[in-house]
Structure formats: C-alpha cells, structure tokens
Amino acid sequence: MKQKTLDRLDTLNSDLDTLEKELRVYANADLNYRPAPGVWSVLDNLHHIRLAEGFSHKYLEKKLKGGISSMKNGGIGARLRSLSVTIFMRSSSKREAPKMVGESQFPEHSSLEEVMGLWRQQRSDLAAFLQEQPDELFVKEAYRHPFAGRLTLMGMLGFFDDHLIRHKRQIARTLRQLNKN
Known about the structure:
By secondary structure, this protein is mostly helical. It has one domain: Four Helix Bundle (Hemerythrin (Met), subunit A), CATH 1.20.120. 62% of the residues lie in helices and 3% in strands. A hairpin with a 3-residue loop joins strand 1 (143-145) and strand 2 (149-151). The longest helix is centred in the C-terminal third of the chain and has 28 residues, at 153-180. The chain is globular, with a radius of gyration of 17 Å.
C-alpha cells in the first residue's frame, strides 16, 4: 500500500507539472489579477491549495507523534467519507475556506515560479516523510479532513487531487475574465 500511495503522489506531481506548463504562458501580473473584490487570482488559488496540503502534512506529523496503535484501520466508513469529499469537491456547492488557508494568508503579489517552487518542495518533503513511515500506517485512518473526518493516506491524496480539480475550474473562470479585459 505504501508504494501505491507514493505512486499516487507521483501522479499528483505530474498533474502539477501540467498545470504549471499551462500557466507559464501568462505574465505574473495576469496571474495576480483579481476579477473582483473577494475573488481569488490564479496565484491565490495556488497558494490556497499549497497551504491546505502543507497543513495536511503538518497534521500527519503531529498525529504520528502519538504512534499508530490507537488508529483504526480504514474501511467502508473511510471510503464513504473520501467519496463525500470527492462529491463535494466536484459539485458547484461552496464552502468558505478555513482562515488558516484563506485569503488573509495570501501575499498581495507573487510569481508562478515562487508558488511552484514552494509547492514542489512541500511535495518532496511529503514524499520523504511518507517513505519513512511503516507499512501498517498506509491502511490506517491517519488523516483528518477538516469537514469529512478520518481518511486513509490514499484518501488524503484523493482530497489533494479533487481539491486541485475544483480550483482549476476557478482558475479557468479567472483566466476567462482576464481575457475579456
């Protein structure tokens, strides 16, 4: 299960590479464009996703300090919670982002290279962290999603994927607004 999880993370990294290639055609000024007050720029969206993933990793580190013996094995409940995250993330329903990964945490201006560099380092750190973990962790409900509850590590990576897909739709809307101006 460990290798399957690491392979999923590699796939997520490939998706990140593809997104960066798609966005490289835009100037950083365009990627910082906010269509209206309270509407995130492309780079705001990227910062948000990166922050959410970073806090997920920090949560795992903290949770694992207590060991894994008290963690439940993932089962149908964890799969259903993961599915609920997927359904929500792929729907048009809205939910306010937690403050720790919200607008107040975004820089006023940034660059694609800066965000992607931070994100890639974060993903590399997560891969190294996961590689060090015992095999039995990969079947446990080790991760706690803020809204859905306990998920396995594969469920966490499913959230990462769904979260990126959701925000790519927002990014596309922002880029359409930019192209209208």
